[in-house]
Amino acid sequence: MLYYSTNHNSDRVDFKTALLRGLAPDGGLYMPESFPELRKTKGASQNFSETLAPFLDIPKTEIARIVDESFVFPVPSKKLFGEISILELFHGPTLSFKDFGARFMARAMNYYLQRKNEQLTIIVATSGDTGSAVASGFYGLSNIRVVVLYPSKRISELQEKQISTFGGNIAAVEVAGDFDDCQRLAKQALSDENLREEINLSSANSINIGRLLPQMFYYFKGFQSGASFVVPSGNFGNLTAGLFAKKIGLPVKKFIAAINENSVIPEFLATGKLIERKTRMTISNAMDVGKPSNWARITDLYQGDRLAMKKDLEAIAISEAETKKTISEVYKNYGYVVDPHTAVGVAAAFRQPPGEPKIVLATAHPAKFPKIVESAIGEKVNIPNALNEVLNKEKRSVLIKPDYPALKELLA
Ligand SMILES: *Cc1c(COP(=O)(O)O)cnc(C)c1O
Question: Closest ligand 1 atom, CA of 206?
Answer without folding.
Answer: 8
